[in-house]
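Hi there,

I know you've been waiting on this one. I reran it after we fixed the sequence typo, so this is the corrected version. Both the input and the resulting structure follow.
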Amino acid sequence: MVDEARISKEKMKNMLVWIFVLCLFDAVVTDFGIQAGYIRELNPLMKEVYHWNRSFFYGCKLFLPLLLLWIYPQLKRRKVVNGGILLCLVAYAAVTVYHFFWMLLVMKGS
C-alpha cells in the first residue's frame, strides 16, 4: 500500500512537470503570436499583465506550476489537489491543441 501511494505521488509529480512544460509552451507561443500579430490574449487579466511587462507575464504563467511542484510533496491530503492537477493538465492540453491549430492556420496562410 505504501508503494502504491508512492507511485501515485510520482505520477502526480510527473503531471506537474507536464503542466509546467505546457505553461511554458503556452507563454512562449502566446508571446510569439501576439508579437507577430496572429493572436491576442483572451484572458483580460493576462492581457493587461502582458502589455504592462512581458517578463512579469512569463513569471505569472510559470509561478503557480513551480509553486505546486515545490509544495506538492509536503501536502498531507492530496485527493482534492490531485483532481485539480488532472483538470489543469487537461485544460493546458486543450490550450496546446488550440495553439497548434492556429499555428497550422498561420503556416497555411504564409
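Quick highlight: Helices lie at 2-36, 44-52, 54-71, 79-109.

Best,
R. S.
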